[in-house]
Design brief:
The protein is of the alpha+beta class. The protein has 4 helices and 7 strands.
Amino acid sequence: MARERAMWRKAVVGAALLASVFGGAWPASAATAPGFLDPSEMPPDPFSAWYWSSFPSEGFYQHLCTDTLEFPAQDVWKAEYSTPETASGAQMSVVLPSEAEAAQFAAHAEQAVAGCAARREQQYPGVPVAFTDHGTVAVEEGAHVYGIGYQGGWGYQNQLFGVGRDGDTVTLVTWESNWGTPPVAAFKNTLTTAVNKLR
C-alpha cells in the first residue's frame, strides 16, 4: 500500500511538472494532495479486478451529475478506475481554504447530484431517469450516496455517486456499469474508505 501511495504521489508531482514545462493551464496546488482509493477498494466486481485507468493527478473529472458544480481554480485532484469490461469509476477530491467553505462546497455538490436526473430528462426528452437517495454514511463530517439509472446506448446504465467530507477536504466518488444491480452497500464501504483516506 505504501509503495502504491508513493507511486501516485509521484504521479501528482509529475503532472504538475509537465504542466509547467508545456504551459498547462491547471495552476499548481497550494495544498498537499489528499489520499486516494486504491483500485482494490472499489466495490468488488463479479467478473474481474479493478485497475487504475488514470493515476491521481491535479485536475477535475467531469461527471454528468457535476455539470452545474463550480470547482475551485486549484487544489483539485482526480483519479479514474476501471475493470476490463463491466464497470468504471472515479474519485475527485477538493481541498478548500476552510472547513466552512468545504461544507458549502459539499452542499453544492449534493444539490448538483440531486438535480441530475431532472437535468438529464430535459436534455434527453423521452428517456426517463430514475433517481434514488441511498442515504447517509457515518464517517468524519458525513457522506451521502445517490444513484441514477437510465436507458443508454449500451443498455440500462446504473450510476452511484458519493459525496463526503473530512474537515476542509471534500471527496466525490463515482461508480457506473450497465451490468447488474448497483452495489449500494459495497459502494458505501468504498465511500467510507475514501473519506478516511483523505488525511
